[in-house]
Automatic annotation (TrEMBL), chain A:
Enzyme class: translocase
GO CC, alphabetical: plasma membrane
Gene: nuoJ
Gene Ontology terms for molecular function: NADH dehydrogenase (ubiquinone) activity; quinone binding
Name the record gives this protein: NADH-quinone oxidoreductase subunit J
TrEMBL record, chain B:
InterPro entries (UniProt xref): NADH-Q_OxRdtase_suN/2 (IPR010096), ND/Mrp_TM (IPR001750)
A Pfam family annotated for this UniProt entry: Proton_antipo_M
Protein family: Belongs to the complex I subunit 2 family.
Function: NDH-1 shuttles electrons from NADH, via FMN and iron-sulfur (Fe-S) centers, to quinones in the respiratory chain. The immediate electron acceptor for the enzyme in this species is believed to be a menaquinone. Couples the redox reaction to proton translocation (for every two electrons transferred, four hydrogen ions are translocated across the cytoplasmic membrane), and thus conserves the redox energy in a proton gradient.
Protein name: NADH-quinone oxidoreductase subunit N
Membrane topology: Multi-pass membrane protein
Catalytic activity: a quinone + NADH + 5 H(+)(in) = a quinol + NAD(+) + 4 H(+)(out)
GO biological process terms, semicolon-separated: ATP synthesis coupled electron transport
Segments passing through the bilayer: 12-29, 41-58, 78-99, 111-127, 164-187, 207-228, 249-274, 312-334, 340-360, 381-404, 416-436, 457-476
Broad class of enzyme this protein falls into: translocase
UniProtKB/TrEMBL annotation, chain C:
Species this protein is from: Marinithermofilum abyssi
Protein name according to UniProt: NADH-quinone oxidoreductase subunit H
Transmembrane segments: 6-26, 76-95, 107-128, 149-171, 177-196, 233-251, 263-283, 295-314
PROSITE patterns: COMPLEX1_ND1_2 (PS00668)
Family: Belongs to the complex I subunit 1 family.
Membrane protein topology class: Multi-pass membrane protein
Reaction(s) catalysed by this chain's protein: a quinone + NADH + 5 H(+)(in) = a quinol + NAD(+) + 4 H(+)(out)
Function text: NDH-1 shuttles electrons from NADH, via FMN and iron-sulfur (Fe-S) centers, to quinones in the respiratory chain. The immediate electron acceptor for the enzyme in this species is believed to be ubiquinone. Couples the redox reaction to proton translocation (for every two electrons transferred, four hydrogen ions are translocated across the cytoplasmic membrane), and thus conserves the redox energy in a proton gradient. This subunit may bind ubiquinone.
Entry keyword annotation includes Ligase: no
GO BP terms, alphabetized: aerobic respiration
GO molecular function, one term: quinone binding
Transmembrane is among the record's keywords: yes
Length: 168, 503, 324
């Protein structure tokens, strides 16, 4: 393992991403939670840049950090709610969740350390936006079109579930 | 050299295209129709589209398998059989909706129909693709449409609760599936299942065995939710009870069939090599059998003290998911045949039971089992039909359910899995108690009102279809068994063209 | 080379700050002139140091954090708003050699990073714990989300014609014909949407002084307020430069007048855009919130989609197809 710039950047971005996620759970005010989440999204975009996936990184920032976080904040500010989330859940429940998550973490860590990673580094630089576009519109055109149906269904659903009652 | 869009024969996608076009047409019609126009004909129109799709699906039986764009779409006998089952289920659901979903109750009558079509499209895609991305998009299309459908009855609190629970737990399940799939992609560098089939073996043998198993188990965790098996069944009772009854029947019948098609395809194509390496028998099979056993025990015992019909059927659905998991885990000689037979048996009997449940819910205004009291005097025909469905669900001979269970049991015994067969028989006996509880209500309890219950044409037709299917599959199972046995199930496991696509 | 890596951005920062100072003065002068006033003329010759004096005043002001405000977020918000504003400048190509980060997806980077500023505005408005500030912030978010879609859609035509997301590549593609001619619909949609993204009149609802006092920055004073103002004017700089690059051919000369250096050409076009922005501010009244939404979703978005369709269609026609 070498301490070069790339590794340093990866390290920092990972810490930021994980830190954002931890703070997201830890904070008690909903607005702070969303901001922490936005921070995580942004750090993940940074990791994409390290992997030479600039397009994905830009889209990540545009969609997640930009649109999704802002919509969440917007939704939180528009709806009535308690400004902070008083966690009054039972401690038994929390203990159970903790054990579950810890076990899952343990399994994943064991698998990672158990596996001797070998083989060369993949050439990531050659995958350009143009390549990506060709793949999406040639090989993966069926799932792509299906995604549009999916988004339409989600849009219709969001509208009918959120629409105000006329008679009420 | 490289095949591009127009080199393919897109007519094989006719069923999907019909369903998608029908959904698009309906959404446009909904836009231009006046607000208070009765939209019940939407369901009939959808039914016509579904029948056309069934026609095109069935007409492809017996032809060579075909794939489009590196297996992102694929028709083989496996796909066709499951798609026919899914579409038949959807057709029956539309029939039930044409009568059972009223605009006075559910204001979004138009949206209801085209969301159901969208969900059906997702289910169809789940049966006929061999590409992880397409399969996942299909799964999400089905799931997201189902979340909305579960909550479409907005005035009812239970419906809101159902949608909420379903979306949260379903989202977590999808996340697990996706996490597992990401490991598969990381190990193989491909989303094509047949390429994955080859490369996973290499990965397994070059020291990545733990990752291969991790990916499988992560996906199974999510799949367990989608097929409603224990211990991932927490959402089932609430969602089944809260959702409008036609939607519940859709979840029970169509979602389950499509989810099994997806699970069978991914697990068998991707991980079949584990069986040849004896790993399956040591690691995967015990886990799956424990899940199956748990589902049977939890489903059947929890159903014992239910007082709501739909909730009871929900727990029964969990138990049935357990039975259905047995062939997958033991991988016997008649794996596909027994699973598929059971699924169609489950389809006809459950649709019938839900039709009766919907009838009584409308009649009594509530979904409590006490609504069945004295049904034999108020409507002997309906009571008799319900008895047939219940006997079939319980697995009493000369019904579809009996032969389905028998088939699965034989498969388990032939592969020397006696303990799971024991659990199956034991829990089946337990299930008699609650199924017979309903029969007792119908025949031995005094009715709440003396006047006869009128059964309209459409539900009556559904009951007739249900009885024909249940009894027919039970009395002359060999017809269905022959037909199912003649299909080229193994074609699902073998790639069509040599040479892996992808980078 | 190494020295330039560090020095370049610092110089750029000062250039941008200089621009902001001048632009504010220019804006006041032009508006004054259009309204038959003189404009600032007391500080320095021709009022040249007016902005400098204003900035000094801001720096010397007391720094106030309201008692009921969310202090951390209140202090953080101006930073969140400003940093992206400066970060987008990195990808702008001023000439074929004067560009800091020539990345492949430059255009997308610009749009993506600029959307982060809204988080800063929203956080600032919320943290102030003031209803005017909150309403201003909400309007800003709604406006930004609504107009980002037509903005990006309008650019698809340009991207299709240039075949790249790289900004230098897009300028190169305009050697023969500036995109403002074949992509005229795209340009109109983009320009209107960019006005809305910049929160400038007639889309300055987030800070509508007649109804919201001052909008999202009503509780801010001194240096923190200056940061919000700075972010706004840096975006004017960046958006004008982007418009120049995308539709006016960047540093490409008009009529083959190559005796002017490319940078001058760029600056000329850039100044034209800045002037137009100020001109619009002096001319048009503010629109209502519902009109704002109607315009974005029912007019601009369909127009942008139509433009994509039209561009794709015209691309197939021989002869003029080469311009698309």
């Amino acid at each position: 393992m070498q301490w070069n710039g790339e590794f340093l950047a990866f390290f920092l971005l990972s810490v930021m991403a994980i830190g954002g996620a931890v703070f997201m759970i830890h904070f008690t005010r909903v607005v702070h939670m969303v901001l922490a989440l936005a921070f995580t999204f942004l750090s993940i975009a940074g990791i994409y840049v390290l992997l030479h996936a600039e397009f994905v990184a830009a889209v990540q920032v545009l969609i997640y950090t930009g649109a999704v976080s802002i919509l969440m904040l917007f939704g939180i500010m528009l709806t009535k709610h308690r400004t902070s989330d008083h966690s009054d859940s039972r401690s038994r429940h929390q203990l159970l969740s903790f054990v579950g998550v810890a076990a899952f973490f343990g399994v994943i860590m064991w698998v990672i350390y158990h596996t001797p990673f070998s083989g060369g580094k993949a050439e990531t630089a050659k995958y350009t936006v143009a390549n990506l576009g060709e793949w999406v519109f040639k090989q993966y055109v069926i799932p792509f079109e299906l995604t549009s149906v999916l988004l339409l269904a989600a849009l219709v659903g969001a509208v009918i579930l959120a629409k105000k009652e006329r008679d009420a | 050299m490289e095949k591009v869009l127009l080199d393919y024969d897109w007519t094989v996608m006719a069923p999907e295209i019909i369903i998608a076009a029908a959904a698009a047409l309906l959404s446009l019609a909904d836009l231009f129709l006046r607000e208070n126009t009765d939209r019940r004909f939407f369901s009939w129109f959808s039914l016509a589209a579904v029948i056309a799709a069934i026609f095109f699906t069935v007409s492809r039986f017996g032809q060579q398998p075909y794939e489009i764009l590196g297996d992102t779409y694929r028709v083989d006998d496996f796909a066709l059989a499951f798609k026919t089952a899914v579409l038949s289920g959807v057709g029956l659901v539309f029939l039930l909706s044409a009568w059972g979903v009223r605009q006075e109750e559910i204001r979004f009558r138009g949206e209801y129909d085209y969301l159901l079509l969208a969900a059906a499209l997702g289910a169809m895609i789940m049966t006929s693709s061999a590409d992880l991305i397409t399969l996942f998009v299909g799964l999400e299309l089905l799931s997201i449409s189902s979340y909305i459908l579960a909550g479409i009855h907005r005035e009812r609190y239970a419906s809101n609760e159902a949608a909420w629970k379903y979306v949260v737990q379903g989202g977590v399940a999808s996340a697990f599936i996706l996490y597992g799939m990401s490991f598969v992609y990381g190990l193989t560098g491909s989303t094509n299942l047949y390429t994955i089939q080859q490369r996973l073996v290499e990965a397994y043998q070059t020291g990545y065995d733990a990752f291969v198993l991790l990916s499988l188990f992560l996906m199974l965790l999510g799949f367990g939710f989608k097929i409603a098996s224990a211990p991932f069944h927490m959402w089932v009772p609430d969602v089944y009870q809260g959702a409008p009854t036609p939607v519940t029947s859709f979840l029970a019948v169509v979602s389950k069939t499509a989810a099994f098609a997806l699970v069978l395809r991914i697990v068998l194509v991707g991980y079949i090599f584990l069986y040849q390496m004896q790993i399956w028998q040591q690691v995967v099979e015990p886990v799956l059998l424990v899940l199956a056993g748990l589902s049977m025990v939890i489903g059947n015992t929890a159903a014992l003290h239910q007082t709501d019909t739909k909730r009871l059927l929900a727990y029964s659905s969990v138990a049935h998911a357990g039975y259905l998991l047995v062939p997958l885990s033991t991988l016997g000689a008649v794996l596909f045949e027994s699973t598929f037979y059971y699924l169609i048996a489950y389809l006809v009997m459950t649709m019938g039971a839900f039709t009766v449940a919907a009838l009584l819910e409308r009649e009594a205004g509530h979904g409590n089992i006490s609504g069945f009291a004295g049904l034999s005097r108020r409507s002997p025909g309906t009571a008799a039909a319900m008895t047939v469905f219940l006997l079939s669900l319980a697995g009493i001979p000369v019904t579809a359910g009996f032969f389905g269970k028998f088939y699965i049991l034989m498969n388990a015994l032939s592969t020397q899995h006696f303990w799971i067969a024991g659990i199956m028989v034991g829990t089946t006996v337990i299930s008699y108690y609650y199924y017979f509880g309903i029969i007792r209500q119908m025949y031995f309890r005094p009715p709440a009102s003396k006047d006869r219950m009128r059964v309209p044409m459409v539900p009556a037709l559904l009951l007739v279809i249900g009885i024909l299917g249940t009894v027919g599959l039970g009395v002359v199972p060999e017809w269905a068994v022959h037909w199912i046995g003649d299909l080229q199930w193994m074609s699902a496991l073998t790639p069509l063209n040599a040479g892996p696509p992808g980078p | 080379m190494q020295a330039w890596m560090w020095l370049g951005p610092v110089i750029m920062l000062f250039v941008v700050l200089g621009f902001v100072t001048l632009a504010i003065l220019f804006e006041r002068k032009v508006i004054g002139w259009m309204q038959s006033r003189i404009g600032p003329n007391r500080v320095g010759p021709w009022g040249l140091f007016q902005t400098v004096a204003d900035v000094l005043k801001l720096l010397l002001k007391e720094d106030i954090v309201p008692q009921k405000a969310d202090e951390t977020l209140f202090k953080l918000a101006p930073v969140i708003a400003f940093v992206p504003a400066f970060a987008v400048v990195a990808v702008l190509p001023f000439t074929d050699s004067l560009v800091f980060a020539d990345i492949g997806v430059g255009l997308l980077y610009f749009i993506a990073i600029s959307s982060i500023t809204t988080i800063g505005i929203l956080a600032g408005g919320w943290a102030s714990n003031n209803k005017y500030a909150l309403i201003g912030a909400m309007r800003s978010a709604a406006q930004m989300i609504s107009y980002e879609i037509p903005l990006v859609m309008a650019l698809v035509g340009v991207i299709m014609a240039a075949g790249t997301l790289n900004l230098s590549g897009i300028v190169e593609a305009q050697k023969e014909m500036w995109f403002i001619v074949p992509q005229f619909i795209g340009f109109v949609v983009f320009f209107i949407a960019s006005l809305a993204e910049l929160n400038r009149t007639p889309f300055d609802l987030p800070e509508a002084e007649s109804e919201l006092v001052a909008g999202y920055h009503v509780e801010y004073s001194g240096f923190r307020f200056a940061f919000f103002m700075l972010a706004e004017y840096v975006y004017v700089f960046a958006m004008s430069a982007l418009t120049t690059v995308l539709f006016l051919g960047g540093w490409n000369p008009l009529f083959g007048f190559t005796f002017l250096p490319p940078l001058i050409w760029f600056l000329l076009k850039f100044s034209l855009i800045v002037f137009t922005l100020i001109w619009i501010r002096a001319t048009l009244p503010r629109i209502r919130v519902d009109q704002l939404m109607q315009l974005g979703w029912k007019v601009l978005l369909p127009l942008a989609l139509f433009n994509i369709f039209l561009s794709a269609l015209l691309k197939e026609i021989p002869g003029i197809g080469s311009y698309y």
